[in-house]
Amino acid sequence: MRRCLPVLPFLALLPFAVAPVLPVQPPPASRAPLYGYQIVRSFPHDAEAFTQGLEYVDGFLYEGTGLNGRSSIRRVALDTGDVVQRRAVGPEHFGEGITIWEDKLFELTWQSQVALVYDRRTFQPIRSFSYKGEGWGLTHDASSLIMSDGSAALRFLDPATFRERRRVTVTDAGVPVKDLNELEYVKGEVWANVWTTDFIARIDPAAGRVTGWIDLRGLLPARERAGDAVLNGIAYDPASDRVFVTGKLWPRLFEIKLARR
């Protein structure tokens, strides 16, 4: 499975959940604006879902989950958290980011170097594409799929061929921002979870410059988090201008509004 957060051996024996100490962003020299959050609503979320990709389309959440033998793509009812449609991913694959392009659902895999393409409505497989390196997060703008691979790079891909059109290196104050994970395209920006942190980077997709940081520390209480239960999952509802966030193995999903600090 993806590089687990370290848990000291004696902590693993304790009878209660121990939340890991998470790194902090942004870089010390950053001048990018910092945003906090207000919780608008809280929704149930499958606490066994190792969330790798999240998207909101036509009134439903679409979710991709990871771990070999447990990976799946899902259609989820927002209000109840019920999984109304599910397709298991082959145990040889560790499912990663997803996005919906027209009538297709694209899914990355972590180390298989293959992208799986499904019919959005039936979840029936259509085809697959190969790529080099790891697959982490996936979203799209009006013309390209946008992919992260765990580095500071964003790749812009042709949806018809999966060929790379260009890439940018994401930086803040000249420092590469690595571990870009789950992605969402929000009003002309790419939002990226930074793996192992409770921060989301807001990125100018043209230049790769970080235009702001969202600090989501405290969103899910520490007592409800342990090990790999890190923030990962951003979905945007453009029709109602709503932002949803969750994490791996989180029992809740949140609608939030940003608050400038």
Distance linking N and C termini: 36 Å
Q: From the alpha-carbon coordinates, what is the Rg to the nearest angstrom? A: 17 Å
Instruction: Estimate the global geometry from the Cα principal axes.
Output: globular
Number of helices: 1
Multimeric organization: single chain
* SSE ordering: HEEEEEEEEEEEEEEEEEEEEEE
Low-confidence stretches: 5-19
Number of domains: 1
Largest sheet: 8 strands, mixed
**Superfamily (CATH H level) name:** YVTN repeat-like/Quinoprotein amine dehydrogenase
Number of strands: 22
Placed side by side, the strands forming the largest sheet appear as 16-17-18-19-1-22-21-20
Helical residues, percent: under 10%
CATH architecture annotation name? 7 Propeller
* CATH domain class: Mainly Beta
Mean pLDDT across every amino acid position: 91
Structural class: mainly beta
Strand composition percent:
over 45%
Would you tell me which CATH topology applies? Methylamine Dehydrogenase, Chain H
Structural notes for this entry:
By secondary structure, the chain is an all-beta fold. It has a single domain (31-260), classed as Methylamine Dehydrogenase, Chain H. Helix content is 2%, strand content 49%. The strands form five sheets. An eight-stranded mixed sheet has the order 16-17-18-19-1-22-21-20, with no helix packed on it. It is globular, with a radius of gyration of 17 Å. The relative contact order is 0.21.
